[in-house]
Design brief:
14% strand; two-stranded antiparallel sheet
Length: 220
């Protein structure tokens, strides 16, 4: 009688090695993909900052005042009811005054900080705002973005160790992931989140807690 060979059980070392290589390639692709997504979102944050900075420069060139600090609606855009002069500060003094609370909301909704995005939008210098959220008109994928005075950002406790930087106003980002802030800061500043604005760098944030930097400011 002919004896049949026993059926081989399990995997050979070569088969196991192939499986491990495939798993490694898949994991590498996932990690690379996550890195690319993070880089894209960091670029979006940088782009929003650059757009607001450019829009603010052109707004001041046209109207002689900063957005939000405009004493009265300009003649060519008075037809827009939402374009009003900001309150809660001294209009026309070169400071975008008003508060941003712990939730990243501009307060009050009539402050210079709150109306600054409306003035930029209706003047045609930015193309998109969220009109359904009057306290958070401009946002990233993570939180609101505001134009606010250096002094108010510091005085309101948003950035506890902000320092005495020679800047009047900043672009204030809220609720950014730590890795996004690290990547943004490395591209636009010195790679140190707590670096001083206007002294050792042009951006600064508060401490990373629970993988989030609650407030990150870039010089306007």
């Amino acid at each position: 009688m002919k004896t049949l060979p026993l059926k081989q059980l399990g995997f050979t070392l070569v088969e196991i090695a192939i499986v491990l290589i495939i798993i490694g390639l898949i994991l590498g692709g996932i990690i690379k993909g996550q890195s690319l997504v993070g880089s894209a979102k960091a670029k979006d944050v940088i782009a929003i900052g650059e757009e607001l900075r450019t829009a603010t420069v052109y707004f001041k060139q046209r109207y002689n005042y900063l957005p939000g600090d405009l004493p009265a609606p300009a003649a060519d855009i008075t037809a827009v009811p939402a374009l009003v002069a900001g309150t809660g500060g001294t209009v026309g003094n070169g400071y975008i005054e008003g508060a941003v609370n712990a939730l990243g909301q501009a307060t009050p909704t009539t402050s210079e900080v709150a109306v600054a995005p409306l003035q930029l939008y209706y003047a045609g210098f930015i193309g998109k705002i969220n009109l359904t959220a009057p306290t958070q008109l401009i946002t990233t994928s993570y939180g609101a973005v505001h134009l606010v005075t250096n002094a108010n950002a510091n005085a309101n406790g948003l950035i506890a160790t902000y320092g005495n930087a020679p800047l009047r106003n900043v672009i204030l980002f809220t609720n950014l992931p730590c890795d996004i802030v690290n990547e943004v800061d490395a591209k636009i500043d010195d790679g140190t989140i707590s670096g001083a604005i206007g002294v050792g760098g042009r951006a600064k944030g508060n401490a990373c807690a629970a993988n989030t930097v609650n407030f990150y400011a870039v010089g306007l």
